[in-house]
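User: I'm curious whether this sequence folds into something compact or stays loose and floppy. Could you predict its structure so I can see for myself?
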Amino acid sequence: MLTHKGTQTIKTERLILRRFTVDDANLAFKNWESDERVTKYLSWDPHKSPEETRNLFAEWCEAYENPTTYNWAIEYEGQPIGSISVVKINSNHEYAELGYCMGFDFWGKGIMTEAVKGVIGFLFEEVGMHRVAICHASQNPASGKVAEKCGLTLEGTQRERFKSRWGEYLDIKMWSILKNEWNK
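Assistant: Here's the prediction. I'll summarize afterward.
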């Protein structure tokens, strides 16, 4: 049985994972929301203005009222540099799937691996999840490296499961970790 707690603050060695505020919009727009390199394999287009980001964050802030909403700002050195969230959840099967993105200037520093580990630990230890998964486009191997560094197992590739914004069908790799594997 799960104990939904909603988006709680998680502190790691270098990061604070916290709820978004509308005041994060300008830095988020600058750091990742407007960058095509960040959104290339995601389901949404880069934002065209800070106002677009602000409107999205206002919706996200309202969603925090729901205890099954898990959506964190990744704060590094005092500024939001990305996001990590539960993009799919099944309470009956105690399953969560994570999605994440981060500003290009922060890639390759182990930051996303640290954030993912923090969220997985929270989902297993505080919420009671049995299984956590990560899916990513095969053309984005960096996301697979994050999953691997966090102890997830590659389960396979789903052929042409995702249609990109530019109309190309992409293969999706699926990774997962079970609670008993995490506890080892």
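Summary: The chain has one domain: 10-182. The two ends are 21 Å apart (CA to CA).
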